[in-house]
Amino acid sequence: MGWREARVQEARSTETKPALVSFLRSENSLLKKQIRTFPPRGHYIVVDTADNLLYLKDGPRTLLKTTISAGSGSILIDPSGERKWIFETPRGEFAIQSKIVKPTWFKPDWAFIEEGKPIPKNMMERVEPGMLGDYALGFGDGYFIHGTLYTRLLGKNITHGCIRVGDRDLKILYQSVPLETRVFIL
Amino acid sequence: MHSLRAFILISIILLSAEASPVSEADRLMEENSLLKAEVQLARSSKIYVIFDLAAKKILMKAKGILLKELPVESYSQWGTPVRPKPLPLLGKTALVKPERKEIKPKTEGAENASEPEILQLEDMPVRYQLKFDDGIQISVKPKSTGMISTLFNLAASLKSYLITRPMGTLWNGLRRQSFTEIVVALNENDARSLYWSFQEGFQCIILWSDSSAQPLPHRSGNS
């Protein structure tokens, strides 16, 4: 039996409801304090993939709210049948791990398969400059918050898992968030 | 007559004086269970959901932060009361479940293929069930806004009262399990949004609404 359980039982057994109430009040206060230690300090990002919205927040304050494009949830199967991709934006808590200016997209295999083109052996044939906008913020496993050429598609779930943001708001985001900034995706 | 009035008055005072610490202790115990459950969930890096029926809110949270709030238009609860504890979502059932769209690779020469079909929020159902352990299920329905949705909701209520609840109770009773059904009505967009965001394996806490209890203090969270 843990000390908390022992104290609850003690408070109950001594027919002292006030003691139980007092104990619960103090324990609840401790638990509330504990919960308050979990949220990140400073800026954090919230991405709502259902409504395709991104919020830059500082505590309860919203510093930026912008329309984005998140993952389509579509499936691509390699014609050989050996590989399969699900283009979904991952959900949960992440952290900004990299900040890149003028990012270059190295087209992965799925991009060639989707376009019905052969997968190149030469790495240079994968280089696609300008596709990711002016900035990219990596949040792990090859997922980025980046710019887009297809601004008319902002607000739709169209991406391969990354989060596309319009140029102006991407710049604000890049300038506002340091590395290790928490990203919550739901 | 005066003595009868005095007796009634004193009885009421004594009863309320006796009842007060009990309900306070119960309320604090309830809050204690909720806080312990939330501490457990907020420690992880996963999104969790709180169904706060008394406050008529569904809260999507992570690390104790409120990420999104969906107002509950109305609700009903039936069966064994649920204690606040982390419950993983085991599954979602709907009459028409949204299916992932498969991308067809372009064939050579077809440069300008049409835009790929994508799964959007609009593809999500507005009527579905969320299944949990302990025989708990939450049925989500859209709030009645017109003749058609009212008729559908009426049919859903009849099904719930005439089939789901008695059969669920009987079936689970035979297996010595409890049965709980909670029905929440949301606006259509919020119903779809919950289906989209609340994924299998995510955890939730259900705050059973006890009309006799005082409401819990405002939930922790910084937004």
Query: What is the name of the CATH topology of the largest domain in chain A?
Result: L,D-transpeptidase catalytic domain-like
Q: Give the biggest beta sheet of chain A.
A: 9 strands, mixed
Low-confidence sequence ranges of chain B: 12-21, 217-223
- The CATH homologous superfamily name of the largest domain in chain A equals L,D-transpeptidase catalytic domain-like
* Count of helical regions of chain B: 3
Count of individual beta strands of chain B: 11
Q: Termini separation of chain B (Å)?
A: 56 Å
Q: Find the count of extended strands of chain A (DSSP E, 2+ residues).
A: 13
Instruction: Please describe the biggest sheet of chain B, giving its number of strands, its sense, and whether it closes into a barrel.
Output: 5 strands, mixed
Q: Average pLDDT of chain A, to the nearest integer?
A: 90
Net shape of chain A:
elongated
Approximately how much beta-strand content do the residues of chain B carry? 15-25%
Write the H/E string of chain A, N to C.
HHEEEEEEEEHEEEEHE
Structure description:
- The complex is a heterodimer of chains A (about 190) and B (about 220).
- Chain A has about 190 residues and is an alpha+beta fold.
- Chain A has two domains: about 5-35; about 45-185, L,D-transpeptidase catalytic domain-like.
- Chain A has helices spanning about 5-15, 15-35, 110-115, 165-175, and strands spanning about 45-50, 55-60, 60-70, 75, 85, 90-95, 100, 105, 125-130, 135-140, 145, 165, 180-185.
- In chain A, the strands form three sheets. Chain A has a nine-stranded mixed sheet, covered by helices on one side. In chain A, strands 4-5 form a two-stranded antiparallel ribbon. A two-stranded antiparallel ribbon of chain A has the order 8-9.
- In chain A, helix 1 (about 5-15) packs antiparallel against helix 2 (about 15-35).
- The relative contact order of chain A is 0.20.
- The model of chain A has no long low-confidence stretch (mean pLDDT about 90).
- The longest helix of chain B is centred in the first third of the chain and has 41 residues, at about 1-40.
- Chain B contains three helices and eleven strands, in the order αβββββββββαβαβ.
- In chain B, the strands form two sheets. Chain B has a five-stranded mixed sheet, with helices on one face. Chain B has a five-stranded mixed sheet with strand order 4-10-9-8-6.
- Chain B has one domain.
- The N and C termini of chain B lie far apart (about 55 Å).
- Chain B has helices at about 1-40, 145-175, 190-195; strands at about 50, 55-60, 65-70, 75-80, 85-90, 90-95, 100-105, 130, 135-140, 180-185, 205.
- By secondary structure, chain B is an alpha+beta fold.
- Chains A and B meet through helix 2, strand 1, strand 4 and strand 6 of A and helix 1, strand 3, strand 7 and helix 3 of B.
